[in-house]
Amino acid sequence: MGAILSLIAGLVLLGVGEIEKFRVVIEVILVAVGIMLVAVGAINLFLAHGLWTGKGWVWTWTLITNILALVLGAITAARGHFWNIISLLMHVLVIVYLNTTRVKTYFGKP
Q: 3-state SS of 70-100?
């Protein structure tokens, strides 16, 4: 769902960025953010398809990205920004879930 929303938001920003009433700087920013959102959405859709079909390499990438997000979130929290505690908990849950026997078997991991 997040991938689809990223794609839609990116396409909207690309369309809005083409309106000539904006200043050039704002137009460039809107187009750049739109391109990034479309790219992130496309990559997330690709990864979601891999997760759905049980590709082992996607399990590995999902584990790596969640560990990195957990470390970066912990660093942010240690600096006094506790607004992302729910995000940290979600990353921990994903890491634990990915390492259950049933999930590892589905992805062909020993």
A: HHHHHHHHHCCCHHHHHHHHHHHHHHHHHCC
pLDDT 10s per residue in the chain (110 long)?
A: 777 887 788 878 777 756 666 677 777 777 788 888 888 888 889 999 999 999 999 999 999 999 998 998 888 887 777 677 888 899 999 999 999 999 999 999 98
Which of these, 107, 65, 108, lies nearest to 90 by C-alpha position? Answer: 65
Judged on CB neighbours under 10 Å (0-12, 13-18, 19+), 88 is middle
CA distance 105 to 86: 28
**Whether pTM exceeds 0.85:** no
Structural domain including 28 reads 1-52
Residues 21 and 40 in one domain: yes
Kindly state whether residues 42 and 59 are assigned to the same domain: no
